[in-house]
Amino acid sequence: MSDTVNITNNAAGDPLAIKDQILEAGAAISQNFSPVKSICAHLNAFHVYASDPDRCVEANHYCTHLNQDVRQCLIYDTPLSNARLIGVEYMISASLYKTLDANERKLWHSHVFEVKSGMLIMPGPNGLPNGIWETAETKEMEEVVGLYGKTYHFWQVDRGDKLPLGEPQLMMSFTQEEQCPRFKEMVGERDVRFGVDHESKGVKREYIAVPEIHEDADSVWKRSSTTSPIRSKEAETATDT
Known about the structure:
The chain is of the alpha+beta class. The protein is 32% helix and 22% strand. The strands form two sheets. It has a six-stranded antiparallel beta barrel. It has a two-stranded antiparallel ribbon with strand order 1-2.
């Protein structure tokens, strides 16, 4: 018998040894994992690189509610047990977003298109009838549609990196289908894997009111493709001084 177990997540490094698996199993039984156990929602969508809007990546969010106005999410490349942690996202209410300064607001994105198009989903548990789960999912979308998100990815899995290399990447969201030429193909492939139909979800969500989106949000779609939100922020700060 091999003393290692192969992990097929494309990360650099040797497979996990059996002895380490045993140690991990023991720690899992005896230690307290309260922060992780507070995760209460799994959301799936696609993030866009603010530095290069032609690139996007699928993102599985595992989210905790810190309070009524703040959520925090760990982002993985897949929903599998060997998934790579590729980033984090913070979500805040519109009322908190308005308290941020103008430069800070440019780092955040809206969720209106993700919700209304059906692209943002909350994958359901196996065995539960889809109709029942969609009722709960749609209620969740009523809340998410008005939130603003700030996201950084550390691991650029879309370009095949075996480790989290380089600087953290500010990520944004799509605000219309035309921003991604492969939108239907990309989201459709995701739908097949999760057994859902984003277009039918979009129809079911038509009743959800569209909140006003602050003019400073979604900055990646409001600037030259050669100017990143981060560099713009630094330039404005330098000018102020």
